[in-house]
């Protein structure tokens, strides 16, 4: 579909969404604003049951591409030695099927309501040795020792966290020397693109429904400036019309 036509359609979508949120959907909007607990519970349900299944096919292309970067980066490892992995912002566990064999996986998420969805999902992937679930924000990973993990994984984390700089500092702390940080996030449209204006227009509602997720962030610079010894980025653009608001993505790997 022509990008100009698509932008116009999403302008109308944004107007309609705001209209609904302030009229028929106002009770839900008010609950999401007033109750952090309700917002977290609603998001875990909405993301797992409604949103993720609707975009799973197109997002899995990016997930597969991201984990191929990890595979290429650790291809010469001894596969008999377990890979110690920490995934931060694990949600319901949509990345599990992409993990390499012989992983010892610890997961962390600040939203306790995702745990029941993750617990059900993890049983489908016996190739992963599940270690522990930690309910904590990634900015303050208390109880995790320095130099503990071979790999830290995050997808769609920096668009939702409170402080990317603090997250990256913690990632570096818990990684072993030479350890890898694998990341995937959606980013803002380029400056001057009508898509960026649309992202900013719907962003307040998006943050409510998605519990703090921002459509218009750019994390690349923060990762580049975090002090890793080596950083590789790839841009990924989703062509599907349903993913217009989060079509621009960055994925890559950083070495401690």
TrEMBL record:
GO BP term, example: methylation
A molecular-function term among this protein's GO annotations: S-adenosylmethionine-dependent methyltransferase activity
Spans traversing the lipid bilayer: 6-34
Alphabetical list of InterPro entries matching this protein: Methyltransf_11, SAM-dependent_MTases_sf, Thiol_S-MT
Keyword Transferase on entry: yes
Source domain of life: Eukaryota
Residues of the Methyltransferase type domain: 86-183
The entry's keywords: Membrane, Methyltransferase, Transferase, Transmembrane, Transmembrane helix
Protein name as annotated: Methyltransferase-like protein 7A
Protein species of origin: Nephila pilipes (Giant wood spider)
